[in-house]
C-alpha cells in the first residue's frame, strides 16, 4: 500500500508512490544518460540498475514498490517486462548489464526485469518507433486533443502551432477525463478535493487536469499533410510534427477555452478570436 508523506499549506500530501513515480519518470524519460545508464534500443533499462540509481537508493525503493507504482499508475506511464520476454524480438542479443534473462514472470529478482517510460522522453531512443503503433487512416482514434493553459496560448499562437519543446514528441490525449463534467469549470485544481473514485475518473493519459485550453486536432487532415503519428502503449497520440517540428494551427478543427467564458479561439483551422486580456503576451515558442 502507498505510504503517505507530508506537504505544507493546503496542498494534498505527497504519497510515497507519487514520490517514487516522479523519480522514475525523470530517470526513464530525461535523466538516464546523465546518470550513466544505457537504454536498450526500444527504451528499456534493467530494473536492477534503476534501483541502484542514487536518487532511488536515497529513497530506499524496493522492487515490490516499483511493481506497485507501475500497477497503480492511472496513466500507464511505465512498462515492466521480463528480459527474456523480449528475447524473440528486436532487443534479442543486446548487451544489458545486470539482466539475467530469466523468463519466470513470478520472479521477484529485479535482475530478471526491464522497465521503460511509455512516452514523454526528452532523451533519444534508438528505435523510437518501437514504442509506438503507427496511426493510419484505418486506425484513427476518435479524438486527438492537446491540453494547454491560458498563459501558454499566446506563445503557441505566435509560433504558429505546437512544438515538442524539449521532448521528442507533441502529446495528444484520445479523450477527456470523465470527471471534468462534474467539476466547476474554473476549479482546475479541485481534483485535490475529490474522493478516490472521482479522482481516477479525472485522469486521462496525455492530458493534465490543469488544462484550461483544449486543442482538437483534425488528425485525418494532419495525416494527409504527411505528418506521422503513433500511439503509445498507454494510449497517447505522439508526433514529431512536420519537417520543421511543428503541428500547425491550421490543422486544428477547434481550440476552445475550458471553463471561463468557454471562448472558441480557433474554428476549422482559422483563428476566430483575439487573445483575451490577461492571457499574457504573444512571444516565444509554442509549448507542446
Automatic annotation (TrEMBL):
EC nos: 2.7.1.160
Top-level taxon in the UniProt lineage: Eukaryota
Keywords for the protein's UniProt record, in alphabetical order: NAD, Transferase
Pfam families on file: PTS_2-RNA (PF01885)
Region annotation Disordered: where it falls in the sequence: 89-111
Gene Ontology MF annotations: tRNA 2'-phosphotransferase activity
Single biological process term from Gene Ontology: tRNA splicing, via endonucleolytic cleavage and ligation
Similarity field: Belongs to the KptA/TPT1 family.
Classification via PANTHER family: PUTATIVE PHOSPHOTRANSFERASE, TRNA 2'-PHOSPHOTRANSFERASE 1
Job description of the protein: Catalyzes the last step of tRNA splicing, the transfer of the splice junction 2'-phosphate from ligated tRNA to NAD to produce ADP-ribose 1''-2'' cyclic phosphate.
UniProt-recorded name of the protein: 2'-phosphotransferase
Species this protein is from: Cryoendolithus antarcticus
